[in-house]
Amino acid sequence: MTATITALLVDMNGLFRHWRDSGARTAETLGGLPEGTINRYAYDHPSYRLARVGLLTDQQWADSVSDRLAADFGESVRDALVHWRKDRGLRSASMVTLLNEIRTHVPVGVLSNSTDALHDDLRHHGIEFDYVLPSADLGVDKPSPHAYRIAAERMGHAPTSMAYFDDEPTFGTAATSVGLHAHLFTTQEHFTSALTRYGLPLTRPI
Question: Would you call the peptide bond into 145 cis, given omega within 30 degrees of 0 as the criterion?
Fold first, then answer.
């Protein structure tokens, strides 16, 4: 018999939001940038890590990306970058419906390697969690064990009484190291089945 849980901690991207990078591709096309340029200047640059652990705000990081691109490709590229910034990913409607059902049984926290933009993004998508824990707020990102410990402390639950789901295997391994009951997220059906084994009476996906 699987142990019961008192709270649930989940990743954000790949579960409740999916990225297709359509905004970045549009910006690159309009700005005359080679494909993949925005990813290289934005997410592969050290400044993104600084934003992810709260040493830069999301806006400060985005401004630095724009400044570096404008310096290398010309000032006109700034207008095209609006499309990159407006793209906030795609909401998984079925997973959000399931999330709302889960929250009637146990509190749910979201732990995401994210800038402080996560708060606005959740409002944009109409997604509500009981605890919103972007790495920028915690000052540390996954897979550091400290990220999971701080998340559990802020939720007020012992890690050993919590389940954790992530689509990144390494992050699940790190969660297990601090006592969380970690699972690799693959599908909504698998997610639901795992939670029902913890005693949550959830509606199975059709």
Answer: no
Helices 58-73 & 77-86, crossing angle to 10 degrees? 150
Rounded to whole angstroms, the Cα distance separating 148 from 78 reads: 37
Distance CA 162, CA 152 (A): 8
Residue owning tokens 């940038």? 33
Count Cβ atoms below 10 Å from residue 176 Cβ, excluding itself: 15
Count CB neighbours of 46 within 10 A: 6
Please tell me whether residues 98 and 176 are part of one structural domain.
yes
Range of 50's domain? 22-86
| pTM exceeds 0.85 for this model | yes
pLDDT of residue 50: 98
Burial 24-38 (b: 16+ CB within 10 A, else e): bbbbbeebebeeebb
Same domain, yes or no: 129 and 184:
yes
- Please give the backbone phi and psi of residue 163, each rounded to the nearest 5 degrees, phi first: -100, 150
Same domain, yes or no: 103 and 55: no
Tokens of 184: 């690799």
Residue 16 pLDDT > 50? yes
Average pLDDT value for residue range 164-172:
98
> Which token pair is 157?
């639950």
Q: Is residue 166, in this structure, part of any structural domain at all?
A: yes
Widest Cα–Cα separation across the chain = 62
Name the token pair of 101.
């059902």
